[in-house]
UniProtKB/TrEMBL annotation:
InterPro entries the record matches: AA/rel_permease1, CAT_C
Protein name: Cationic amino acid transporter 4
Organism: Nicrophorus vespilloides (Boreal carrion beetle)
Gene3D superfamilies: Amino acid/polyamine transporter I
Subcellular localization: Membrane
Keywords assigned by UniProt, alphabetized: Membrane, Transmembrane, Transmembrane helix, Transport
TM annotation in the entry: 44-61, 73-94, 106-126, 138-158, 170-188, 195-219, 231-251, 272-298, 318-342, 370-389, 395-414, 477-495, 501-525, 537-556, 562-582
Keyword Transport set for record: yes
Cationic amino acid transporter C-terminal domain mapped to chain residues: 535-585
Main location, first listed in the record: membrane
Membrane-topology annotation of the record: Multi-pass membrane protein
Gene: LOC108563903
């Protein structure tokens, strides 16, 4: 018996590191899916807008304007929108590379490895589950406010108060019912639910336009020059603190990338919908906040119902009811967005074997993962029933920011990884190879230069010359991320010492910045792989690196209890991964039979960063069989021209 246990333990621990770092192999046809590809650019844009414009504009704006930033909330939303756009562009590039459900989880699996992919996927599940629960709780609270607190008072009289710190004041039965009902509505099919979402989002945007027009008509510019602090009553630090809070109003943009597996034309729709939705939402938030703070002094803004009370104060009571309709529609679309994304992420992880296999089933009639949708609705409804809204929002943010950070890092890593790229003149059936003397003619020449040192940086050869292509960049990204986090912690903990010129804090800060700069130099010194990308994040590696820094800065501002809850959630995730996922991974099956499966038609399915020793016949066969248009949206395998 002891020997059996030893054998089992040896089997479990063997190759643990390689298992955790194995990357996802691309399917032969990334456009093939059991889901229904029926969403156009308009549908996906309104899905993103609807997910972002909900509880934030009707609940968050009043609190931030009154207690954190004052009228400077306009700048807060602008900064938060720009920071979110950096991550959104990274998502958009991945969405065109790989139009699959799972969003950041799939991108991480392809670029970094299985373990970090599971960490991201596990946190995305939490993000959308808590996102749905928090919006349902806000939806219930808003309806309760409109009815004068009748619902909460009746519930308290029946159930009494819950006195635990993490739990809500009372069990929110209305929020529970709302989650269940909306989950059932999403079960009708993606196109039907997209139509409902688009209709509600258009109503919400119309209400926002009404708020802006009427608000500016009754605007009083003296509210921005009040003796109680003027435009920036809390200073620029208040603006930054407001930006950290307002950032979470934009977290819904990842639902755009999640819809990639149901988009008709993902290589166009995903980046276009990302840019349009971010632009619409940022402009909408800025204009609504400007109208609100011009309509009423920031210190008189209502915490619970900022917009309705502001218009009631100037005698425009009818606008109050229009705003209420918009708020209900906006919160509904945000709830739709979370309940839309959650089951699809579960489906993606289960399809890869990292979650239980029954979660990978898709209903043949509706082409929706109905089992996941039921589970998502029940769990989200239970969380909404019991937990406090403020604690839910704090807990949601940490997983979101972690996902954004790793996706931004993944963009840099993949841009500098070498992939096989046949020459522009491709051999087709019945034709002869036609290659000029300037075109590559041998397998070693077919490999592009990505991940190798550029000529003008050849002076780095003694240090980096022996590194595998792409490995130096991957290491530099890791070091940059670590020291970015260290810099953010130093600024947070020792901000007073830095401002007072304490020597050791200045030396540390300068050292961290120098190391980060050196990492960026190493990255820039290498050739990029831009082959065939239909949408590219501009200014790589600088914009993704800035995104990493912004996301880490926001994470450092989270309180210690949020980090402790995150640790507990990750312990549960590690149990799932090491007891189930690592042993049932589909990539594990691929690795164990790799030598048998490595025939000429599959030779191109190398792990990322593979070198020149790939069967050229397999590459050309793969190219010959690939179709035009969307079916070429495979990472690093696109051709510029097909004669």
């Amino acid at each position: 018996m002891p020997s059996s246990r030893k054998m089992i333990l040896g089997h479990v621990m063997s190759g643990l590191c390689s298992k955790m770092n194995r990357t996802k192999q691309l399917p032969a046809d990334v456009m093939e899916t059991p889901l229904n590809r029926c969403l156009n650019t308009f549908d996906i844009t309104l899905l993103g807008v609807g997910h972002m414009v909900g509880a934030g504009i009707y609940v968050l704006t009043g609190t931030v304007a009154k207690e954190i930033a004052g009228p400077g909330i306009i700048i807060s939303f602008l900064l938060a929108g720009l920071a979110s756009l950096l991550s959104a562009l990274c998502y958009a590039e991945f969405g065109t590379r790989l139009p699959k459900a799972g969003s950041a989880y799939v991108y991480t699996y392809i670029s970094i490895g299985e373990f970090w992919a599971f960490v991201i996927g596990w946190n995305i599940l939490l993000e959308h589950m808590i996102g749905a629960a928090s919006v349902a709780r806000a939806w219930s609270g808003y309806v309760d406010f409109l009815f004068g607190g009748v619902i909460s008072n009746a519930t308290l009289s029946i159930t009494g108060e819950m006195h635990e710190e993490l739990l809500g004041k009372y069990p929110d039965l209305l929020a529970f019912v709302v989650c269940i009902v909306y989950a059932l509505l999403l079960g009708i099919g993606v196109k039907g639910s997209a139509i409902v979402n688009s209709f509600l989002t258009v109503i919400n945007l119309s209400v926002m336009v009404l708020v802006v027009v009427v608000g500016f008509y009754y605007a009083n510019e003296e509210n921005w020059t009040t003796p109680k602090g003027g435009f920036l009553p809390y200073g620029f630090s208040g603006v930054l603190a407001g930006a950290a809070t307002c950032f979470y109003a934009f977290v819904g943009f990842d639902s755009i990338a999640t819809s990639g597996e149901e988009a008709k034309n993902p290589s166009f729709s995903i980046p276009m919908a990302t840019v349009l939705s971010m632009g619409i939402v940022t402009l909408g938030y800025i204009l609504v906040c400007a109208a609100l703070t011009l309509l009423v002094p920031y210190y008189n803004i209502s915490d619970s119902a900022a917009l309705p009370e502001a218009f009631s104060g100037v005698g425009m009571h009818w606008v109050k009811y229009a705003i209420s309709i918009g708020a209900i529609c906006g919160m509904t679309t945000t709830l739709f967005g979370s309940l839309f994304s959650l089951p699809r992420c579960m489906y993606a992880m289960a399809s890869d074997g990292l979650l239980f296999s029954f979660l990978g089933d898709v209903n043949s009639k509706t082409q929706v993962p109905l089992t996941n949708l039921v589970i998502s609705g029940v769990f989200s409804a239970t969380i909404a029933l019991l937990f406090d809204l403020e604690k839910l929002v704090e807990f949601m943010s940490i997983g979101t920011l972690l996902a954004y950070t790793i996706v931004s890092a993944s963009v840099i890593i993949l841009r500098y990884r070498p992939t096989l790229s046949p020459s522009r003149s491709i051999l087709t059936l019945g034709s002869e190879m036609s290659v000029s003397t300037s075109e590559p003619t041998t397998p070693s020449e077919i490999v592009n230069m990505a991940g190798t040192l550029r000529v003008k940086y050849s002076w780095l050869t003694p240090v980096l010359g022996n590194c595998e292509p792409g490995s130096a960049v991957s290491t530099s990204v890791f070091i940059y991320t670590v020291f970015s986090g260290a810099l953010c912690i130093l600024i947070q903990v020792s901000s007073r010492d830095l401002s007072n010129g304490i020597w050791w804090t200045i030396i540390l800060a300068v050292s961290f910045i120098f190391i980060m700069g050196a990492c960026m130099l190493v990255i820039v010194a290498h050739h990029q792989n831009n082959e065939g990308l239909r949408f590219k994040v501009p200014m790589v590696p600088f914009l993704p690196a800035l995104s990493i820094l912004c996301n880490l800065e926001f994470m450092i501002h989270l309180n210690i209890l949020t980090w402790l809850r995150f640790f507990v959630w990750m312990v549960l995730g590690m149990l799932v991964y090491f007891l189930y996922g690592i042993h049932n991974s589909k990539e594990g099956e691929t690795m164990s039979t790799y030598s048998m499966l490595m025939n000429s038609s599959e030779a191109v399915k190398e792990k990322w960063g593979a070198t020149t020793r790939t069967n050229i016949k397999g590459v050309l066969t793969r190219r010959k069989s690939s179709t035009a248009g969307e079916r070429n949206a495979i990472i690093g395998d696109e051709d510029d021209d097909v004669p």
